[in-house]
Write a structure and sequence with these properties.
Blueprint lengths: L20 E5 L3 H10 L5 E5 L5 H10 L2 E3 L5 H4 L4 E4 L4 H14 L3 E3 L12 E5 L2 E5 L6 H14 L4 H18 L4 H12 L1 H7 L3 H14 L5 E6 L10 H9 L2 E4 L5 H4 L7 E4 L11 H13 L3 E6 L9 H10 L3 E5 L4 H8 L12 E6 L19 E6 L5 H11 L6 E6 L7 E6 L3 H6 L7 E5 L9 H11 L1
Parallel strand pairs: 1-2, 1-4, 2-3, 4-5, 8-11, 8-12, 9-10, 9-11, 13-14
Antiparallel strand pairs: 6-7, 14-17, 15-16, 15-17
Helix pairs in contact: 1-2, 6-7, 6-9, 7-8, 8-9, 12-13
Amino acid sequence: MTTTCRKLAVFPAFHKVSGKRVVVVGGGDEAAAKIRLLSETEAEIVIFAPALNREAGAALIAANGDWRGKTPALADLAGAALVFVATGSEEGDREVHALARAAGVPVNVVDRPELCDFYTPSIVNRAPVAVAVCSEGVAPVLSRHIRARIEALLAPAVGDLAGLAEKLRGKVAARIAPGAGRRRFWARFFTGAVAERTYAGDLSGAEAEAFRALEMAPERGHVSLVGAGPGAEDLLTLRAQRVLQEADVIVHDRLVPEAIVTQGRRDARRIDVGKQRGRHPVTQAEINAILVREAKAGHRVVRLKSGDPLVFGRAGEEMEALAAAGISFDVVPGVTAALAAAAENRIPLTRRDASSALVFATGHDADGETLPGWAGLALSGTTVAVYMGRAVAAGVASRLVAAGLAPATPVAVVENASRRDARSFTGRLDGLARIAGGTDPDAPVLIIIGDVVAAGAGAVASALLAEAAA
């Protein structure tokens, strides 16, 4: 998957306005909006307008601004930090724009992008934290919608948490040397118990928790076994995103897309340990050794696996190795491929009148042989999802038919589930080898077997009905 490289026409920056004069020219509703926005800063607000309407007058009083009842001259703008222009007329806007440019002051003219040196973003204020959203003046309504979503994500107490961090900064610098240890401390500070107490309004408890965490630092390394999901970036969990941002080292599989790996910290070291059928350039024993080595070096390690780490991800072997080495670890679940494949094809993996059980099976055992153990389960109305099944489709089909499953049992073969290049194929169990043979040999392929395939609501079920009618 390729992504178009889009370059901004602006460079985002924040102007220092504390104690500085910011000028608003105009006395109507648009000027009032700028006054209200500036009232959230420590700027000295000066308004130039022969008259103010009710909105502008109320905004002026609330902002404790200074009103000059005239049109500004060049000397009135000199030395200002910024100028906002909303006179209500194109001629007036252009005249003030020319004065601001002559005074060497950055100017924003409302609703006239061609006259703007800078754009006014939609702002999420969590002082001292601020998030600004800008669309370069082309879609201000979209910016406001994005701001509303960010407002919902950021607790009002985010500013209090930032203030506590500033209070502790000197103590942290004296206690913890620069590098991975200090990064881990701040990662825990902003996402753990300190943050939870702050958001709950318990500022004294948050500060006490922060001092306890500081006394415990620096800590030993840690490994997180993280599920990257089936490939779609928006199926990565919020917890997985957070852990990736805290990682010093990311150990990832071949099937994890680059777009997900890059959600880790930019300076995190990446180790590719990808494996394919018949080609294991890095053995599982070597992967275990890498995880132990990096954690013992004091690093925060993310072992990033496609799908869910506990579903055919060899997480059990890695957990055993970490436990034996005395390394702390946790598991972050991910969306496994069977769930993604079923969801995008609208296949109900369980259904009261068709299937009351679900089996996740792999096409190979530890020796690479087709597994026969679950064949009999399919006879009792169980849906079977076969992972890594492309190469063994013929064997899977023959074993199931030999066990008594009807050759006409519906099957779906899904390639690259959840990704933009996903493809789905349908048919009968006795044609499974042919169907799977039409997939990309290098792509992850999942096979769903059972009557639920035909009971779905999507194109897969429709295709099966069409095939049956033919």
